[in-house]
Specification:
6-stranded parallel sheet; 35% helix; binds adenosine-5'-diphosphate; binds magnesium ion
């Protein structure tokens, strides 16, 4: 893991200092209020640690996609209440991110107070990573803290540019995320298993390419498994399948072979003639027995048992993508069962389990094991780019 500074590297007393703190306040909203404040809760320890040290904290965040223009509906003032509720402190809303309004506000804020700057994406310099724009923001701060891993795959002024202009630190949530991801794929305990599921191979090609060279077991599930089965000559009926990617699937399996990585495809599957909850045509069969008018919607019980046995031989698991069409009963069965096995192995101390991805997080929550994994990343795009083995500019800038 590249070295980066954390809040541990800060002096005990930050009175008189201004900390520019990049956080994720892109909260889901309904009728003008936040419906989920998880992201604020994630940033809370960092914010309060800085205010406890006496710093004036300026929160810097994006909210929606205003595309470089002020928008009356996308001001961060809409999340001010949520931020105050979670922090249990008053927060001053500041309608700019630089200039005299920010300077005057800093004159009013006392040590340990918090200001909330407006949506940084109102200014085109943010997404362009314009050095002048970053410099104008940096003018107001003595240090920069990035606690928004979810935005770290973007090289923007507030996620990347600022880190080069001020002493830069990873916040506590960022630090936890980086440590967990490093434990999963950076310098993991061996052997490592990866579960890659979800709908399509085409959206996860880079993930697969990166993983075959790094893990001992590659477990392929979901609609993606259909493409791999088809590549092996299995007739998958009318299953979701990218027939144009069978050559790619074969190449990935060859690469895995060379790298000493075992690719696990299911022996048995759950099929149905129509995609609906509990369809009467549903049955479990061997992958070689799928009829022309049937589609594969989940892995079968034998496959799940075999995969559970694989996990029992591993020390580390990294998981992205559900094993079946888990939103529709009972095609959540394989995902829920394997998730519970992984949770139990984690609990007993034999497995380090790290998972991420929008639908994966929803599936683990549905299985009731989200809190039983070692770490579940809610970072979405940043998590996937990390699984692809890409350097995240926001992280790289912290270690520069
Ligand atoms: P994530 O958001 O965790 O990265 P994806 O978006 O790649 O995951 O994939 C999730 C989707 O894959 C879910 O909507 C699920 O219904 C779908 N899926 C999984 N298995 C199948 C299958 N056999 N047939 C059709 N869709 C599937
Ligand atoms: Mg998804």
């Amino acid at each position: 893991m590249p070295a980066f500074k954390t809040l541990d590297d800060l002096p005990a007393d930050l009175s008189g200092k201004v900390a520019l703190v990049r956080v994720d306040l892109n909260l889901p909203m309904k009728d003008g209020s936040a419906t989920d404040v998880t992201r604020v809760e994630a940033a809370k320890p960092t914010i309060l640690e800085l205010t406890d040290k006496g710093a004036k904290v300026l929160l810097l965040a994006h909210f929606g996609r205003p595309k470089g223009q002020r928008s009356s509906t996308l001001s961060t003032s809409f999340v001010q209440d949520a931020v105050e509720d979670v922090l249990g402190k008053e927060v001053m809303f500041i309608s700019e991110v630089s200039g005299p309004v920010v300077e005057q506000s800093l004159g009013i804020l006392r040590n340990g107070d918090i200001g909330l700057l407006d949506n940084v994406r109102f200014w085109p310099g943010e997404e362009a990573n314009d050095p002048d724009f970053a410099r104008a923001m940096a003018e107001h701060g003595d240090l920069y803290v990035n606690d928004a891993f979810s935005a770290a795959h973007r090289a923007h002024a507030s996620t990347e540019g600022l880190a080069h202009l001020l002493p830069a630190y990873a916040g506590r949530a960022m630090e936890a995320e980086l440590k967990a991801l490093d434990a999963a794929l950076g310098s993991p305990e061996q052997p490592v298993a990866a579960v890659v599921g979800g709908a399509k191979v085409s959206t996860k090609l880079d993930v697969l390419e990166n993983l075959v060279g790094r893990v001992r077991h590659l477990i392929i599930g979901g609609g993606m498994a259909n493409t791999f089965l088809a590549a092996r000559g299995v007739d998958v009926g009318k299953s979701l399948c990218e027939h144009d990617l069978t050559a790619t699937a074969n190449r990935i399996m060859d690469e895995a072979d060379h790298a000493g990585c075992t690719v696990h495809l299911p022996y048995d599957v759950v099929v149905a003639k129509e995609f609906a909850a509990n369809p009467p045509s549903m049955r479990t069969c061997n992958v070689h027995e799928v009829a022309e008018d049937e589609m594969i919607l989940d892995l079968g019980p034998q496959a799940v048992e075999a995969l559970g046995d694989v996990l029992k031989t591993c020390r580390t698991l990294v998981w992205n993508g559900p094993l079946g069409a888990f939103e529709t009963e009972p095609f959540d069965t394989a995902t829920v069962a394997l998730a519970k096995t992984a949770a139990a192995l984690t609990e007993s101390g034999s497995l380090i389990s790290v998972a991420g991805g929008g639908d994966t997080v929803a599936a683990l929550a549905h299985a009731g094991v989200k809190d039983d994994f070692t770490f579940v990343s809610t970072a979405g795009g940043a998590f996937l780019e990390w699984m692809e083995g890409k350097d995240l500019p926001g992280v790289a800038a912290l270690s520069a």
